[in-house]
Structure formats: structure tokens, C-alpha cells
Amino acid sequence: MPKGGRKGGHKGRVRQYTSPEEIDAQLKAEHEKAQEAELEEGGGGAAGSDPTKLKKDSSDESDEDEDDEDYQQKRKGVEGLIDIENPNRAAQTAKKVTQVDLEVPKELSRREREEIEKQKAKERYMKMHLAGKTDQAKADLARLAIIRKQREEAAKKKEDERKVKDTTGGTTKGLQSMSLNK
């Protein structure tokens, strides 16, 4: 028996595509629903002032009801219960350069915020360190104090040795070393 079981496998199945007419009908229905929502939200006073618009809307509503019924009949299963928005189908509106608001502060991503917080924390730490308020700075200052004491003691010893050499006859030692060289 060949690999994959039956002859042909899964690759030759018939694919079903949405026809352009059906996509247009869906877009038209969505557009009409959006218009209805606009009229319901803020159209109470504005729609009441224009009687011709009301007549037009009422005639459109009867057509919309028929379209919605046809559209509802085409749906199968749970499609009628779940309203799915396909981002590939909806036309995305591009903003013009004049519409872009530059004064609005740009929201930073999580990584950018964390990076800025790290930098600020590092600066605070360096200020505290230079002021000698951190544990590490205190330890460094203690070490430096010990080293200074050791250096001062070493310098005092050298000075004492020089004084001893000068008073005891450092000159005789110099003469002895000269005589040996001859």
C-alpha cells in the first residue's frame, strides 16, 4: 500500500472560495448596519429635522430587512451567533499626514519603559555611591582609609631611616663604597 493510505491523499480536495458577489453583499450589509448605528446614536434630532431623509431611510430599511433575511438564511451552524470581523476583508483607512497628532505623547513599549527605568535606577545609584551612602561606597572608603594609614606609616619609616642615616654617618658609608670601587 502506498504512503498516505488512499490514492491521491488530501491534496486534491475541492476548495470552496467565496464569490465576489457574496463578499460585496457582506460588505454592503456591514455598511448599512454601521449607518443604522450612527442614526440611532446621534441621529434623533438631526434625522427628525429632514422629512425627506426619513422617507428615504424608511424605504432603505425595508430593503435592508430583506437583505438581512437573505443573509441570515445563508449562515449555517453557529455563524449567526458569533460575529467575526475579518481584518483582511475590511478596508483599512490610512491617516493623512495632516491628521497625525504629533503633540500626543507616544506610548512606550514595555521594553523601552524597562530600559528607561534601568537607566534612572543606575543614575540614582551612582549619585548615592558618590555621596558615600551605599554599602559598597562605605566599604571602598574604609579600604581607602586603611591604605592611606599604611602609606603614611611607610612614609614615616622612610623619613626616620633617612634621618638615622644622616646623623649616624651616612657620609662614611659613601666614602667606604667609593674606596672599594678603586
From TrEMBL:
Annotated region (Disordered), positions in chain: 1-118, 152-182
Specify the domain of life of the species encoding this protein.
Eukaryota
Q: Which residues form the Casein kinase substrate phosphoprotein PP28 domain?
A: 86-163
Compositional bias of kind Acidic residues: 60-70
Pfam name, any one: PP28
Q: Which InterPro entries match?
A: Casein_kinase_sb_PP28, HAP28
Bias type Basic residues, positions = 1-14
Ranges of compositional bias, category Basic and acidic residues: 25-36, 103-118, 152-166
What is the protein named? PDGFA associated protein 1
Q: Which organism is it from?
A: Leptobrachium leishanense
